[in-house]
Design goal:
Layout (H helix, E strand, L loop, with lengths): L17 E4 L1 H4 L10 H6 L1 H7 L3 E4 L27 H13 L3 E6 L9 H8 L12 E2 L20 E4 L4 E4 L14 H17 L3 E4 L17 H15 L6 E4 L5 H5 L10 E3 L3 H11 L3 H8 L9 E5 L6 E2 L5 H11 L6 E2 L2 E2 L3 H4 L4 H13 L3 E5 L57 H5 L5 H13 L2 H5 L1 E4 L7 E8 L2 E8 L5 E5 L8 E4 L4 E2 L8 E5 L4 E7 L4
Parallel strand pairs: 1-2, 1-14, 2-3, 3-7, 7-8, 8-9, 9-10, 10-14
Antiparallel strand pairs: 4-6, 5-6, 11-13, 12-13, 15-16, 16-17, 17-22, 18-21, 19-20, 19-22
The protein binds alpha-D-glucopyranose and calcium ion.
Length: about 550
């Protein structure tokens, strides 16, 4: 079978395995209690060994950190807590030397209220270009009916500014004023931010909160054609650099609306598949494949050059904004009986605690993540089964220090424990004394070993990132079976969504004579014949088979 493309392939993102990493939380190189670029550079060997091919680095800019850095006060430097621009360049070079791509964040829907643009705007005369970097109004009347995203903390999308003596608009926290994309000066600033980081050599950007850029009265102010025009302009600008730079849209929207962020291959290269994620959890909890099959089958086709980004968890809550009311109620009941675990329209838990630390469910979910059409993203710490702390406020409970060893501060930092940016996870099940990289590296049966293995296996076959998907319809609905196909390459995936042993009878008639070879052990199974192909699956078990042509 065909091997995945190299990092020189301009469509590298189609075969990538992305690792989401907050600098602050990964490794503290200078012992002040906060992770930094020196520390991240020191851990590149670990990441390379894990097998990931691209690092998505969370916002690392100067910021009052009231939204963990998504509240940016300066787009073109590094938060001094994380290091200097020289540290960043050294990290970037070290990553590139290892063949790892690095993508950053373009958070351009809003800035921090501490950004000099906002400070200037509030003092500037109404109607001046400086004032109009942001969206102002004398009343709260404009854009009525637009939903509030951070429902737990914000009552309105408008906040009164006593300095400007006017209201400013914000879709997120009130300290994050939205930029005004109707002002050409704003667009110019954004393009120069892009240039700054592209000149430095970053390989792409995640476009944060991208559906809300342009506002129009009488609409939902989401996914407007004017917003797509802005994205097309950003893309055209990036393309001036030649191929190989990637844009990833964060658009937490319904599949038809997310589809638009690919345009005709002239907007973003990638977009998160938000709708499928909660359905993976639902499918396993209900022991029924239907929610998963529906989510994938309702996914519209996308241009050849584009790719879905798949994930199980990330730095935010497990968002339930884009599921039906019944599904949301079910998810809350199934996955967050403790009300403390809920925030906004979602659940602030890590992967392992979500599934009761059941190793088989963690493996199954990754088996699906790695074999569905798209590029998988692993959230730091989930590869070792880290836990969370729902008492830390906001979404900080899933942003605790990476657990490297069972030593002081989990090996994350040499600082006085009181100085750490966040307490470590310390409970008996997930605490750093038991869950840490060092322990898992000395245990060949650990989750970390298993993850390394699976990531390597997935990377051997381009069909996972580039192939089509066809679902089979075995009568047992607890079984999810699908074919992945790319040119002559053919893979059969079979998963048991239930916690009990299940039989699967697969109608593979058209593949009579093909020989399934189990891919982890490279074990040949009996050839497919006239009758339905029969398999038995253990609790939450799954298999990947390469289907070899008769006589091959
Ligand atoms: C994105 C980020 C989230 C942040 C929000 C506002 O959704 O993922 O962490 O709070 O944007 O910037
Ligand atoms: Ca530090």
């Amino acid at each position: 079978m065909r091997r995945a493309g190299t990092s020189h392939d301009p469509r590298w993102y189609k075969d990538a395995v992305i690792y989401e990493v907050p600098v602050k939380s990964f490794y503290d190189g200078n012992g002040d209690g906060i992770g930094d670029f020196i520390g991240l550079e020191q851990k590149l060997d670990y990441l390379q060994k894990l097998g990931v091919t691209c690092l998505w680095v969370l916002p690392f800019f100067p910021s009052p950190l009231r939204d963990d850095g998504y509240d940016i006060a300066d787009y073109c430097t590094i938060n001094p807590s994380y290091g200097t621009i020289e540290d960043f360049k050294r990290f970037l070079k070290a990553a590139h030397d290892r063949g790892l791509k690095v993508i950053g964040e373009l958070v351009v829907n809003h800035t921090s209220d501490q950004h000099p643009w906002f400070q200037r705007a509030r003092h500037a005369p109404p109607g001046s270009p400086e004032r109009d970097y942001y969206v102002w109004s004398d009343t709260e009347e404009l854009y009525q009916g637009v939903r509030i995203i951070f429902v737990d903390t914000e009552r309105s999308n408008w906040t009164w500014d006593p300095v400007a003596k006017a209201y400013y608009y914000h879709r997120f926290f009130h300290h994050q004023p939205d930029l005004n994309f109707d002002n050409p000066a704003v667009m110019k600033e954004i393009l120069s931010v892009l240039d700054y980081w592209l000149d430095m050599g970053v390989d792409g950007f995640r476009l944060d909160a991208v559906p809300y850029l342009v506002k129009r009265d009488g609409t939902s102010c989401e996914n407007l054609p004017e917003t797509h025009a802005v994205i097309k302009a950003i893309r055209a600008h990036v393309d001036l650099r030649g191929p190989g730079k990637m844009l990833l849209a964060e658009a937490n929207q319904l599949p038809v609306d997310v589809r638009e962020y690919f345009g005709d291959g002239d907007e973003c290269h990638m977009a998160y598949h938000f709708p499928v994620m909660p359905r993976l959890f639902m499918g396993i909890h209900l022991e029924d494949r239907q929610p998963i099959v529906d989510a994938i089958e309702q996914t519209p086709p996308i241009p050849e050059s584009c790719q879905w980004a798949l994930f199980l968890r990330n730095h935010d809550e497990l968002t339930l904004e884009m599921v039906t009311d019944e599904e949301r109620d079910y998810m809350y009941l199934a996955y967050s009986q403790d009300p403390q675990a809920r925030i906004n329209a979602g659940i602030r838990r890590r992967l392992a605690p979500l599934v009761g630390n059941d190793r088989r469910q963690i493996e199954l979910l990754h088996g699906l993540l790695f074999s569905f059409p798209g590029t998988p993203i692993v959230y730091y710490g989930d590869e070792i089964g880290m836990g969370d702390n729902v008492y830390l406020g906001d979404r900080n409970g899933v942003r605790t220090p990476m657990q490297w060893t069972s030593d002081r501060n989990g090996g994350f930092s040499r600082a006085d424990p009181a100085r750490l940016y966040s307490p470590l996870i310390m409970d008996h099940v997930y605490g750093y004394q038991s869950v840490n990289v060092e322990a898992e590296e000395s245990d060949t049966a650990s989750l970390l070993y298993w993850m390394r293995n699976m990531i390597r296996l997935r990377r051997l076959f381009t069909v996972f990132g580039r192939g089509t998907i066809e679902f089979l319809a075995p009568s047992n609905r607890r079984v999810l079976a699908y074919l992945r196909r790319c040119k002559d390459d053919l893979i059969l995936c079979v998963a048991n969504l239930a916690g009990s042993v299940q039989p699967a009878e697969l109608d593979l008639g058209a593949l009579n004579g093909y020989v399934p070879v189990e891919m982890l052990g490279y074990t040949e199974f009996p050839a497919i014949g006239e009758l339905p192909y029969f398999l038995t699956l253990g609790p939450y078990g799954f298999y990947w088979f390469e289907l070899q042509r008769p006589g091959a």
